[in-house]
Amino acid sequence: MSRLIVKTKERFGRKKRLGEENRLGWIAITVVSAMIGGALSGRLMTASAVQAAAAAPKQITAQKFMLVDAHGKTRAQLDVTDKGVAEVAVFDGDGRLRGGLGVAADGAPGLGLYGKDGKTRAELALGGGTARLRLFDTAGTPQAALGVTADGDPALALMDKSGKVRASVDIATDGTPTLRLLDQNGPRLGLDLTSDGRPGLAMLGTNGATRAALTLNADGAGSLSLFDPSGKVISGVP
């Protein structure tokens, strides 16, 4: 009886080991199959992507492209206007123009930002060699402008509610800075500083002619000059 029990235990032990070996073997086969399947899937996906890229058109020609959102509303537009301006227009969720980037037929680029009412609020442009930035009020009237000419001369202008320049600051090519104050018809007061450091103040009549000037000479002495309506000196101190 004891021999039978021992043999039964040995047989049972061998079956148990064989079962574990078989189970481990299936696990290994499953892992290897998954790795092979994943590799093949990645290769198939890569091949599909390559085929799709190869089948994509190399060039699309059209006069207008429209980009719509999930509700079918136009959010962006790419086209060429009747005036020959190639532009990208961007709209908000209500279909209102809020931004535009364009290049004119003569090559002048420009960027515009617009309020909810469609009126221009900011403009950045390059034309005639002059780079400029203009800011507008809610009515679409320019209120401030900053520009740099092709010669490198910077200038700043401030406008009134009608859009007329009322104050300006510029620096000439020789380095001379000038501040001008204007009425609705033109400059009335000018303050400048020469390249060698001599300040000057000029008051102008309604016709633009200088009527009085206060300057500081090279020797450090001050001078006051008075002019007639035609701009001719009539008196001075000293």
Please give a structural write-up.
This protein has one helix at residues 2-55; strands at 64-68, 74-80, 86-91, 97-103, 109-114, 120-127, 130-136, 142-148, 154-159, 165-171, 177-182, 187-193, 199-204, 210-216, 222-227, 233-237. The termini are far apart. A 16-stranded antiparallel sheet has the order 1-2-3-4-5-6-7-8-9-10-11-12-13-14-15-16, with no helix packed on it. A hairpin with a 5-residue loop joins strand 10 (165-171) and strand 11. The chain has 238 residues and is an alpha+beta fold.
Residue share in β-strands: 35-45%
Unreliable sequence segments: 1-12, 14-18
Order of strands in the sheet with the most strands? Answer: 1-2-3-4-5-6-7-8-9-10-11-12-13-14-15-16
- How many DSSP E strands? 16
Oligomer: single chain
- Pattern of helices and strands: HEEEEEEEEEEEEEEEE
Shape designation: elongated
User: Can you summarize the main beta sheet?
Assistant: 16 strands, antiparallel
Overall SS class = alpha+beta
Rg over alpha carbons: 40 Å
Distance between the termini: 145 Å
Overall helicity:
10-25%
Average of pLDDT: 84
Number of helices: 1
